[in-house]
Design goal:
- The complex is a heterodimer of chains A (404) and B (234).
- Chain A has 404 residues and is α+β, with helices and mostly antiparallel strands.
- Chain A has helices at 4-12, 15-47, 71-84, 130-134, 167-173, 239-253, 265-272, 274-308, 310-318, 323-360, 367-393; strands at residues 57-64, 88-94, 104-109, 119-126, 138-141, 150-153, 162-166, 185-188, 192-200, 216-224, 227-234, 257-264.
- Chain A has 2 domains: 4-47 and 274-401, no CATH class; 66-255, no CATH class.
- In chain A, strands 3-4-10-7-9-8 form a 6-stranded mixed beta barrel.
- Chain B has a single domain (33-55, 79-233), classed as Rossmann fold, CATH 3.40.50.
- In chain B, helix 3 (100-111) crosses helix 4 (115-128), helix 4 packs across helix 5 (144-156) and helix 5 (144-156) runs parallel beside helix 6.
- Classes of the chains: A alpha+beta (404), B alpha/beta (234).
């Protein structure tokens, strides 16, 4: 027969120790649930696809220092050479790299005028090979044609008249029906018109922490600039082999420029989420440490409590308690203390999450995570008390007649 | 009926063997009131611990109420203690955090009685020891004599066949000791077998049978006769 009532009444007369451990459990619950929530939030961000064929792509910076350099002709030569190379799927010049942390953005609006709301979007200046070179999926409309591509001078403020947008940007512009964006004329720089001729499934912006990371736009520009990036996609499995070859080829083919900062998209992703990874490791360490400390706290309190009650345990054994009934007593006592701590912890966890949601614009915590915290701490509590409870059950009933 | 034949108990440390009981033979019949006396270290408490199944013995045969104790495992001994034996301890051994009602309730819960039956037994036995009106009090709010009465109520609540008392009056003044002794005599008259370990010769004299334990062996004496002879010589 369970002794719940007796345990509660006994605990009520000896509150301090139990209350302290319950508060420790509550604090642990509050912290670990929110820490795991933050870890999960970052993990889900890191698992998002960029839309680019990351396994088979890399990029490099082409910096021109030669005088009287024909930028347009040199770029076309480089691209033609790369596109013809065995193992290369496609190559483009691009102004920014997804997830790299640096790039261009602009505001797009469905109505012209300074007083109208615009929607922020990343801007990728590319040619008609971009969809193939990046590995994007065109889900509506059409690609640029070669005649759509214009040269963009440094400092130029006018835009091309056609764009391809991501589905997320189409949905932001036309929330009722993203497909209706196709063929629509929208406005950039408040009143310049651009027509949406295609929609791609996904292409992330260069900034992973931005809430509009999925909003991007391809603009048919090639840049007449002394510093540019070339983005190359290879056949599966050939990237690592081709990278040094391409670097050498480009460097040797033209002595008026430097090829540097060659990096794969995989490295870019890793660098992009370096802080997320570090934070997650710290949070994981906090969760594990706190759980262990709480476990040791429970063990300590239970051992202290058992040592204090050795004669009482002997008396219970003398009165007929089996070893299992003694074990069960201490496990039930722990369950009740943990239960109080967990209830307070649930309130704490939700309150802390409400503050985080309000302050840092995080999503609200889900009930599954709170349930996970409840079950985990109950298990930790029961495991922690197992050894002391077993020790208590081994106390001899003869202890009842000893003078201690 | 309690029968011990050639019981011995040896405590073994790293290199020392201590014989607490040697060839201990004793038969206690149903309804007996036996006092166990003897000097400190003679083996009285070891005998009581073995008789109460609180401790195992090294060799010999021990039968309690027809049950061969040597064949019982730890659970079996716990069950036997709960069903057939009541304990009264020198320092009462009440649980300080529980009130009188809950203290008496402890062995009844191990027995598995339902709440109604437990309540009936608790109230009846606290009534029997004259403390029914104080069942919500904590042990610390009672005198020593009253605490021992609660311990007696707790021991009786399970209707034991045997009541084992370890110096039940050792921590009480003489007036309270007489009161507790009278209560034990009443309980014995109602059929419960009592084995009482005591240092107090006067108390031992009040029991119909006394055994003396010396160096771990039984020396049965007629304490009434011995006392009378001593008075005559004086």
């Amino acid at each position: 027969m369970l002794e719940t009532g007796l345990i509660i009444r006994a605990l009520m007369r000896n509150k301090i120790g139990a209350l302290l451990i319950a508060l420790q459990i509550a604090l642990t619950m509050t912290i670990i649930v929110n820490a795991i929530f933050m870890i999960q939030d970052r993990e889900s961000q890191m698992l998002r696809s960029s839309g680019v064929d990351e396994l088979n792509t890399f990029y490099l910076t082409n910096t021109i220092f030669g005088q009287d350099y024909n930028i347009q002709s040199a770029l076309q030569t480089d691209l033609n050479t790369l596109r013809k190379m065995p193992g290369v799927v496609d190559a483009i010049q691009i102004n920014a790299i997804p997830l790299s942390g640096g790039g261009w953005s602009s505001g797009v609006q469905t109505e012209a005028g300074e007083d109208k709301d615009s929607i922020g979007t990343a801007v990728y200046m590319v040619d008609d090979h971009a969809i193939n070179a990046l590995g994007l999926e065109l889900i509506a409309g059409e690609n640029f044609s070669a005649t759509d591509i214009q040269w963009r001078k440094s400092g130029q403020s006018t835009w091309a008249d056609k764009v391809i947008v991501t589905k997320a940007l189409a949905l932001s512009l036309f929330p009722d029906d993203w497909q209706s964006a196709l063929g629509k004329t929208v406005f950039i720089s408040q009143n310049q018109t651009i027509q949406i001729i295609g929609i791609v499934k996904q292409l992330q912006a260069p900034w992973n922490g931005w809430d509009g990371v999925e909003r991007s736009m391809l603009v048919p520009f090639q840049m007449e600039s002394k510093g540019s990036r070339l983005f190359i996609r290879t056949q599966p499995g050939q990237r690592d082999q081709l990278m040094p070859q391409i670097e050498k080829l480009l460097a040797e083919s033209d002595k008026g420029r430097i090829i540097r900062r060659m990096r794969t998209m995989e490295e870019t992703r890793e660098r992009s989420y370096q802080r997320h990874n570090a934070t997650n490791k710290i949070l994981t360490t906090v969760v594990i440490t706190l759980t262990i400390i709480t476990g040791f706290g429970i063990v300590g309190l239970a051992i202290f409590s058992i040592n204090r009650r050795t004669k009482q345990i002997g008396t219970r054994r003398a009165l007929g308690a089996t070893r299992w009934q003694i074990m069960r007593y201490f496990m039930m006592e722990n369950l009740l203390i943990s239960g109080v701590g967990i209830v307070i912890g649930c309130i704490g966890a939700v309150s802390l999450n409400m503050w985080l949601v309000k302050t840092f614009n995080l999503a609200p915590i889900n009930i599954e995570l709170i349930l996970f915290g409840v079950i985990s701490l109950l298990i930790v509590g029961q495991l922690a008390v197992l050894y002391p409870a077993k020790k208590a059950s081994m106390i001899s009933p003869a202890m009842a007649t000893r003078t201690v | 009926m309690l029968i011990m034949k050639n019981i011995s108990k040896v405590f073994q440390t790293a290199d020392i063997q201590t014989h607490a009981l040697r060839d201990f033979n004793l038969t206690v019949n149903e309804g007996d009131f036996v006092s166990v006396t003897g000097p400190s270290g003679s083996g009285k408490t070891t005998f009581l611990n073995i008789a109460g199944l609180l401790e195992t013995y090294t060799s010999g045969e021990f039968t309690l109420d027809g049950e061969d104790i040597g064949r019982l495992n730890d659970n079996g001994r716990s069950r036997m203690r709960n069903h057939k034996i009541g304990f009264i301890f020198q320092s009462f051994n009440l649980i300080p955090d529980l009130n009188l009602f809950d203290n008496v309730d402890v062995p009844l819960r191990y027995r598995g009685f339902d709440a109604k039956e437990r309540r009936r037994r608790i109230e009846e036995n606290l009534e029997r020891v004259g403390l029914a009106s104080r069942m919500k009090h904590l042990p610390s709010q009672l005198s020593g004599g009253q605490q021992q009465r609660v311990a007696i109520a707790r021991a009786l609540a399970t209707d034991p066949r045997f009541l084992l008392a370890d110096e039940p009056t050792g921590n009480l003044d003489s007036e309270m000791a007489q009161g507790v002794m009278s209560l034990l005599e009443d309980i014995n008259k109602q059929g419960t077998t009592i084995i009482m370990v005591t240092h107090d010769a006067q108390l031992a004299q009040r029991s119909p049978r006394t055994i003396q334990v010396m160096d771990g062996r039984v020396n049965e004496i007629d304490i009434h006769l011995a006392t009378t002879n001593q008075q005559a010589i004086a």
